[in-house]
Give the backbone structure.
Amino acid sequence: MKTSIFGKFSVLFTTIIVLTSVLSCVLMYNFIEKYTIDSRREDMCAAIDDLEVLLIQYMVAVNNGITESGEWSSESAKEDCENKLQRFKERMEFYYKQLDSHIYLSGVDGELLFSYPYLPNVDTLDAAEYLPKTVYSKMIVRDAEGKAAYYFREKKQYYMGDSDEVKVDENGFSESLGDFYGLYSGYDVSVFTVSKIIYFTYPDTYIPAQYGKITFCASMEEVAQARSTMLRYFILSTIVAIAVELIIILWVTRRMTRPIREVEYLTKNLAKGNYKSKIEKTTNDEIGALIDSYNNLTDELAKLDKVRSDFIAAVSHELRTPMTTIRGFVDGMIDGVIPPTRQAHYLNVIKEEIIRMNGLVNDLLDMTRLQSGAVQLDIQSHDIIQIIRGVVTKLEPIIKEKDINIMYHFSCDSCYVATDRASIERVLINLIQNAVKFTSNGGKIVLSVKRNDNNVLVSVADNGIGIASEELPFIFERFYKADKSRGLDKKGTGLGLAITKSIIEAHGQTIKVVSKINEGTKFTFTLQRKDS
């Protein structure tokens, strides 16, 4: 099943957004709880410290205002104690509303001395507020002298020391997060609890004694609400982000893949032989590079198609002429148009044409094998000067026939190169034969060898008729024959220089040509230097 770039990008970026949102949500989820608890802890500790001061002030006033007989020493002392107690209760009410906390003052045995909101049947103040029933129903109620007395059911709720489950710091504070040992087990959310041990020093003893604990219990409902709100916002923002992302990706991928779609469409036409269509380049990125590659490909394929067409036309032309000649002579013999006395002559002509066609076919096969890499060159170290002198000796008959003067310009007596001897001899034969062919009688050919750091430069120069500058770029193409400069070459196939170039390139080297009309031509090729 085909998957579009839009689909792949959508899945990738959606996954990234979702994972990022989930990670951020988890971090914020935990951060909210930590931030809220830290903030609550600080506020609760300050409130407890404040209530502790007011409580101790009240206890000091009671201790100083009551005589040994248990009577008030004065009405003013009694009134002062009542005022301090009333101030303590008002401050508890204030913190209850400010911190949204249940406040307890318990004794060392767990008895609840004060609470806010109030416990039922304990306080007689008008408009008294009561703790939720789900809370006070979990407390122990003891009736003594007709008055209800409430106690924490769990000892850990009022434990005054340090244990495995109740850790008390150096200031007497302890804290917990949960249901406060079952007291708030009916709540849907956790309760954060902070307690502090209250010490009171009796007059004249200076010995601190534990009086009890002040405890603040705050529901973490706001944390749950904040988390719920945060979760909704994260989900909403994720959905919006994904929607925006899909719109952007759709626009970007459509814009980005438009040239790719054009390449896909035009490639199908390319397979049908349409090399003229081009794609307009609009960017300088990888897509632009792809468009450049496609346009270059069409140019190269067009050139290759033209070369193929020219090649077929050239081969057809080269074969059609001798085949027509052979057929004409054979038909003439069969029809009796050519007399028997002349048949031997025409049979020799037919033989020469067959030999030429055979040479053409062999040259084509050799060039094809060279260009395809099918020919394995036997690269060894050979003296190029010795090879040149050997080739000149082989071609001595045609050289003497035109009275050509051969000149040698060698920079050394011997010069070893890494080459395939048979192939490089063929190169030299082609170049020297061409030089002889297009050089007038009595002309000269200069054969040069020059060494540099890595290569050896071999040159074949003549003072013949030369090649026109506009024809130089094409002379290494198959079947190419210049109309003017190659006018003397009536029997050549136009493959000699193409084969020469293929051999040199198979060696990993280069060949160049310079020429001027009526001044001569110089071919120079390189070979890898191989010191003996």
Remarks:
- Confidence is low (pLDDT under 50) at residues 483-488.
- The chain has three domains: 59-216, 286-370, 380-529.
- Residues 59-216 form one domain.
